[in-house]
Structure to design on (49 residues):
């Protein structure tokens, strides 16, 4: 099954960010305009690690 079908969000442009946990479960996604250094992205990564 595709990631789109699992979470229902299509990437709109390059650098769309999907976060997937260690078990392969999709988490939050962020659009291309979101910086990798955005506090929301960092918080998500810290939680998934």
């Amino acid at each position: 099954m595709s990631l789109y079908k699992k979470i229902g969000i299509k990437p709109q442009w390059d650098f769309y960010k999907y976060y997937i946990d260690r078990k392969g479960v999709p988490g939050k996604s962020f659009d291309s305009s979101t910086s990798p250094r955005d506090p929301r992205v960092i918080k998500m990564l810290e939680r998934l690690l």
The CA atoms of residues 19 and 27 lie 5 Å apart. The first helix runs from residue 3 to 7. The chain has a mean pLDDT of 84.
